[in-house]
TrEMBL record:
Species whose genome carries this gene: Allopontixanthobacter sediminis
Protein name, UniProt field: LysR family transcriptional regulator
Residues covered by the HTH lysR-type domain: 6-63, 89-142
Coiled coil: none
Keyword Transcription: yes
Listed InterPro entries: LysR_HTH_N, LysR_subst-bd, WH-like_DNA-bd_sf, WH_DNA-bd_sf
Protein family membership: Belongs to the LysR transcriptional regulatory family.
């Protein structure tokens, strides 16, 4: 169900039948004939492999799978913006939004650029909005187009969750959870949680998308990932996201074994500025904490010789040079335990809050709630 978009009219017919409890009234509401509506519901039942309604003399009574699914379907249709939009139109527009050109979108979908252009134009007409525009030789989404692309991503996430909940109720627990993971969460916290979750839910697929906060926040907002793990940001940056603190991490100064500074126990301001540093970008909380640590020690931050957020790259550079970094020991645990790297306490305590970030209006499935619970329970073991 990632980009597998069901027939939107079938979904609208299903939602209307739940709401009205009658094929006749539902058909009028979505402007379908009664045979077409009945056929739409039958198609959805085949796709889900379950019965959605009990046909009774007084009308159509939704079954438990229908009750589970209908809130997700209504939310998805609202985000899509029109029950007249087709799956082909939505798939074409989503491919265009991601690829940035009709030619690139054609490569990913297998459709011709002309077919894509026609589908996107038809979608624009269906939702009553201009979605794309040309600026010179470049194609861009309009502001409404950007909002529509985001809504489509969230609609797909809603439907994916709804189908997963129905499958779980049927005892076919399948589905997929997509986790955004910033560097620290990948060291020990997330792997331990994944092992526990897999033991309880072996049929649920997990996908881990790695990156920085800047790289992962957009996919989170668009519904491409379900939640994000890592260092929390200031609240003013996240008006549409919610953050849950889980544990505190205490970064340390790390260097190669045998480094001249490793012979002492207390670091002075002069020593901290004597060597070159490798640090993440200035947009990260860790960089700010590093600057505050140096200010506490009584010195101005030196020039960052290498700006890098990759732990693998940082590790190799530390092993081969006298450079320093400020990082969580958990992220370099293997090298530290092997005696290849040395850890010293910073001149002032440095701590950062690690947690879970979600969309403010997110409604997790039972399986998503389960892995969040495991993450909360696993974190104190390593904090």
């Amino acid at each position: 169900m990632d980009d597998l978009i069901p027939n939107i009219r079938h979904l609208a017919a299903f939602a209307a039948t739940v709401e009205h409890g009658s094929v006749t009234r539902a058909a009028e509401a979505v402007n379908l004939t009664q045979p077409a509506l009945t056929q739409a519901i039958a198609g959805l039942e085949r796709e889900l492999d379950c019965q959605l309604f009990e046909r009774e003399p007084t009308g159509m009574r939704p079954t438990q799978p229908a009750i589970l699914l209908v809130p997700r379907v209504k939310s998805a249709i609202e985000k899509i913006g029109s029950s007249r939009a087709t799956a082909t139109q939505l798939r074409a527009f989503l491919a265009l939004a991601r690829a940035g050109s009709y030619a690139s979108a054609a490569e990913t979908t297998g459709l011709s650029p002309a077919s894509l252009h026609r589908a996107v134009a038809d979608l624009s007409y269906a939702v009553g909005e201009r979605l794309v525009e040309r600026r010179g030789r470049h194609l861009t989404l309009t502001r409404k187009g950007e909002a529509r692309a985001r809504g489509l991503g969230l609609a797909i996430a809603d439907l994916r969750s709804g189908f997963a909940e129905v499958a779980a109720w049927l005892g076919k627990a399948g589905g997929r959870i997509v986790i955004g993971a910033m560097p620290l969460s990948r060291a020990r916290w997330l792997p331990r949680a994944i092992l526990r979750f897999r033991a309880q839910f072996p049929s649920i697929d997990l996908a881990v998308v790695e990156g920085s906060h800047a790289e992962l926040a957009h996919p989170l907002r668009n519904g491409e990932i379900d939640f994000l793990l890592g260092a929390l940001r200031s609240e003013e940056e996240l008006d549409d996201l919610e953050q849950e603190p889980i544990f505190e991490d205490r970064p340390q100064i790390i260097m190669r074994a045998g480094h001249a500074l490793s012979r002492g126990t207390t670091l002075t301001a002069a020593q901290l500025t004597q060597y070159q540093w490798i640090m993440p970008s200035s947009l990260t909380p860790l960089r700010s904490y590093w600057e505050e640590m140096l200010a506490y020690a009584g010195c101005s931050p030196p020039r960052v010789a290498i700006e890098c957020g990759s732990v693998l790259t940082i590790r190799e550079i530390l092993l081969e040079t006298d450079m320093l970094t400020l990082l969580s020991p958990d992220q370099l645990r293997v090298e530290i335990e092997a005696g290849l790297l040395t850890v010293l306490k910073p001149p002032a305590p440095v701590k950062r809050v690690i947690g879970i970030t979600t969309r403010r209006d997110w409604h997790p499935t039972a399986q998503q709630r389960a892995i969040l619970t495991i993450l909360r329970e696993t974190a104190p073991q390593i904090s």
